Amino acid sequence: MAVTWTRAWWRWTGGPTTRPVERVVRVDGRSRADEPGDERQAFGRWVKRPRVDGGKRRGDGCDRRSLSPTWVLAVGCPQPAGRGGRGVGVGRDASRLAGLQRRLQGIAGGLAVYDEAPDNVSSSTYSSTPSLPGCRVAPGMRADAGLPLARVTSNRIDVEALAAMDGVGRFREVLPMLMDPVAFAEAFVSGDAAGGCRVPSRGMERHRATLRSCGVASDARSRPAFAMKAFTTPKKDGRTARLVLDARPLNDAMRRPPSMDLPRLRDFIAEVERHRFAMQCDGVSYFYQFPVDASISRYFGIGMKGCDMLLNVLCMGWSWAPCIAQRASNVLVRDLGLAWVDNFLVLGGTLDEAERNVAVFRKRAQAARVEVRAEGDDALWQVRSRFVCVGVEFDLAAETQRHRLDPAWAERWVDGSGMTAVLSGRATARQFAEVFGGAVWATDILAVPRCHFAALLSFAGRLGGRMVGAAAPVWDEVVDVPPSARRELGALRKIVRENPWVVGGVPEDTGSVLWTDASSRAWAALLEAEGRFVDGRQGVFAGPDADAHINLKEMLAFAEGVVRLCWAPGAQRCRIDNAAVVGAVAKGSSSSYAANRVLSRSLRVAGRRGIVLRPDWVPSGGHLADPYTRGTSLPRFPAQLPLPRSRATPFDLF
To answer: 32 by DSSP, 3-state: which?
Structure first.
């Protein structure tokens, strides 16, 4: 069957404003001419046209005149407001896209769909359809909507018993958000917890029986305070889907949650590599194991056709949920290991210590009724020296503990369709965000400083700022990725494809301290060793650098010190009186493009010399290089250290 694209532009004139809408219709070599005043738009449904008789089929809302008897992708039919227009319910047909793709051979390019009738379609955000590249459908009608909902455990955690184990009190601090309706109501910003929001879900009615049987949700006997849109996302197995609630209305009405107490990834890796053995397991449908008081569940409503439902468990999508889950996990692994939300890692320096810690963890999990399972093909409670956890492969059996990216994850990121689209220069904002998120994750695990990708970071910052500032961000708009950002991403892609092992451990100290400082017009760098200055440099800013921000001048001074003075391999201590520079050096990147370029030069030189930079902040009054940026000439080396100065305070005048 010959399949062709027909693309036409027209204006939808039925709303309060006149906005251009792109229409893409796919037919067997023919297309109906779209008049300028046409008020219909296709949106997300495959329809069989068995005859051409000029009539209409009730419910599909598409004009059938001049259509040949073939498959047509009818992407909706919004009508002007006030004329009874409504969107076609396409959720039930989304699963047919993959099968129809096999019938429609000869596809060239993708399908761009834009909704310009918010009164008729519940959402204007879209996601990529993996089975049909380039096709975007609404969140409630994603390609995975055809997947069955994964069966979840009916087990419920004894949160009171878990709180009794909390020796620190961090979990008890957030427990009222699950059990106390008064505390829950007090978390609303406005103080009014009446709610009243209702956003319908599309295609979720067929999951009602599954949600009931697992005890995850129940039918609402009265109108929920918040009835929000639910959708499904595919699980890692690719055969089932998980339920997610779009809880943005509830999140916007409540104050921000406290800290999750989630460890930094680098700290997580460093702690694991201080041990030799580990046992890994994860919670079974972990969020759904946390019960919610019946008086609170009315805030976790699912808008459904016929009868709304209420979630009886912790809502995946609620801003407080990760905080509650992480703090509960920290109670279970306290003094035994680490937790990353629903992943538990019990550690030990020796095999006996690891097995003892596993026994304690099992008792805690049984006392709190937490159901866990082994990760992958591992046997539950098995102690290992080589394993994969939170996307990191650890090898603790080696002479020097080491880690790298999970090879399966690295392969998916390197060869994914999103990566291909971004490297081609034209990708959707959603595709770029997904690829960039993977890039951040990969650089953290492989210990690659992100300052080497200054153009990529700069473009991501601009795009993120535009999306955050937009009233209704369109994540499926096509963006042009600059060539410089693509080159840097290609370089990172090669590193991830190689996926080298990163050896842990802390290098030996060089025994010297680098002092760098900058003023508005000059810079200075001095190297201290054995209680005296052994070398130093100073200079005056000229050209564009003379008008640069003070943070960039401090970074330039630091770079000059590293390049000119640091030669011994090992951990090099650095003393800087600028907090922005200290933070940038510590994490390997800055929010400034220019600062990233300068820092990249410093770290490249340090890496070639085997130097690991360890920055520390020192107040300006006690910074030994400060006088040499304000007119004082450098001493003859070696030189004794000057006495640290202190800044004058108003009390010194009396």
So the answer is: coil
